[in-house]
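Write out the 3D structure for:
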Amino acid sequence: MAEKLRIGVLGASGYTGADLVRLAARHPNMEIAVLTANSHAGKPMRAVFKHFAHIDLPDLVTVEEADWGSVDAVFCGLPHGTTHRITREIFATHPHVKIVDMSADFRLRDPAIYQDWYGVEHTATDIQPEAVYGLTEVYRDQIRDARLIACPGCYPTAVLISLIPLAKARLIDAEDIVIDAKSGVSGAGRGLKENTLFCEAGEGLSPYSVGKHRHMAEIEQEVGLAAGIADLRVNFTPHLIPMSRGELCTSYVRLSGGAKPSDLRQALIEAYADEPFVTVAEEGVLPQTQMVRGSNYVVVNVVPDRIPGRAIVISTLDNLVKGSAGQAVQNFNLAFGLDETTGIEQLPLFP
């Protein structure tokens, strides 16, 4: 077995950080050495998350107390706008450390676009060019050699896996895409927000950030690159659904170049034939969140629209695993020359 690689987790008290810890704790090549959470510094991890009562973990510390020189990789689960400074500091003082960023701070190639969408200045423009967009199935070769991996958001991961092969093959009109997306409440983070309180989110379905969700920028960036279209615009509307985890995206597309819905499905089958975590469902089987809960898998399929010349592309994943922590571990494995599936082969949990 390969030697243990020591890791640190920034923002370990959030849902994303906690799921990263959950996966890392049973990863045969990871040793968890540093866990930060400024608001819970000094506490044992089991005091913040009861499901870690069964394992020994380092106590939580502040970012300032963390010893980044003692680790081989840092996973960042901090909110956007808080990663730039820390990443720049680690880059400057610990050149051997690789960073797998689960925040949004390095996903967008153009810092000006980042500032437009996130409302904060990009303060690490000097290292932005080193960031590789961490959509594993598309950028696998670049991820292997990257020092800074910018993992995609959960919505973009689900959407891009289903649409990039179709846009590349010019089977769809990339300028006519309508995406209806739904996510479990954990996608909103662990911080206290009125709209995620049980009485507010339970027994209801709510759209949010309509026409202005920040993940639109990633989707437009990557579908635009695949289709060869600069300044692409897509229609994207997210919804909050009353469950803890899970995500389902339904994309309505116009066919192009005489393509049929069956051509789209065949293109996805060919694109993902050798991918360990992407499944194209059997014809007529609709992707459901139950197919992926707690796992690193994505399920996609194509359904003909009753409107001539259009098709419906459906994709589903667990927003905390393949949509975040699981994909981060997948990219870590690539960056350190491990088998890509190591530590993330858990089957979906059902019921």
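The chain has ten helices and 14 strands.
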